[in-house]
């Protein structure tokens, strides 16, 4: 997973080369969906507890550290469920890019960590939700994607 700023910087570096080549733009690190969920929850001041396994796994709110960031969430709420509708039938077991050529030939290394990118995404989504709530509270409806 790459941040757009890192990706665009890598594109620029590639375009500065005399001879075109293919480069893999990746961190070379692998994280689980569970880790991404935990980072997202932490950014909202939530501690989670996972129970079950496979399609029966759920995540409960174990603790709320900042009620202002997640006012509609309560302790004990289930906030994550596995939904088989979103399984990809041709999914590979593992995805991991090797950016060594980009590092060696161009000196490119990602500057933004996956955790930082996750926090930025959550902050933006939270700000969008706050704007929507303010509009709705004042009688204005706007379409919102729930996925």
Describe this structure in words.
This protein has helices at residues 4-15, 33-43, 100-106, 114-137; strands spanning 46-51, 58-64, 78-81. By secondary structure, the protein is an alpha+beta fold. The protein has a domain at 31-93: UDP-galactose 4-epimerase, domain 1. A three-stranded antiparallel sheet has the order 1-2-3. It starts with a helix and ends in a 10-residue tail after the last helix. The mean pLDDT is 90.
Spell out the key features of this protein.
147 residues, alpha+beta, UDP-galactose 4-epimerase, domain 1, 3-stranded antiparallel β-sheet, 3 strands, GDP_Man_deHydtase, NAD(P)-bd_dom, GDP-mannose 4,6-dehydratase activity
Q: Which topology of the domain at 31-93 does CATH recognise?
A: UDP-galactose 4-epimerase, domain 1
Strand content: 5-15%
Provide the succession of SSEs: HHEEEHH
Separate helix tally: 4
CATH level 1 class label of the domain at 31-93: Alpha Beta
User: Sheet with the most strands?
Assistant: 3 strands, antiparallel
What is the approximate shape?
Answer: globular
Q: How many beta strands in the DSSP annotation?
A: 3
- CATH superfamily annotation of the domain at 31-93: UDP-galactose 4-epimerase, domain 1
- Could you tell me how far the N terminus lies from the C terminus, measured between alpha carbons in angstroms? 19 Å
Side by side, the strands of the main sheet go 1-2-3
Structural class: alpha+beta
- Helical fraction equals 25-40%
The poorly predicted ranges are none
The CATH architecture term of the domain at 31-93 is: Alpha-Beta Complex
Radius of gyration: 19 Å
Overall pLDDT score: 90
InterPro entries: GDP_Man_deHydtase, NAD(P)-bd_dom, NAD(P)-bd_dom_sf
Cofactor: NADP(+)
Domain NAD(P)-binding: 4-121
Family: Belongs to the NAD(P)-dependent epimerase/dehydratase family. GDP-mannose 4,6-dehydratase subfamily.
């Amino acid at each position: 997973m790459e941040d757009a700023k890192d990706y665009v910087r890598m594109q620029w570096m590639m375009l500065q080369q005399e001879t075109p080549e293919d480069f893999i733009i990746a961190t070379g690190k692998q994280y689980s969906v569970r880790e991404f969920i935990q980072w997202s929850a932490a950014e909202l001041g939530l501690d989670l507890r996972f129970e079950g396994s496979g399609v029966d796994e759920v995540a409960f709110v174990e603790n709320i550290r900042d009620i202002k960031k997640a006012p509609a969430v309560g302790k004990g709420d289930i906030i994550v469920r596995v939904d088989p509708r979103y399984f990809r039938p041709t999914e590979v077991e593992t995805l991991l890019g090797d950016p060594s050529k980009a590092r060696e030939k161009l000196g490119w290394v990602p500057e933004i960590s996956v955790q930082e990118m996750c926090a930025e995404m959550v902050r933006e989504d939270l700000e969008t939700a706050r704007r929507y709530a303010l509009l709705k509270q004042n009688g204005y409806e706007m379409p919102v994607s729930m996925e």
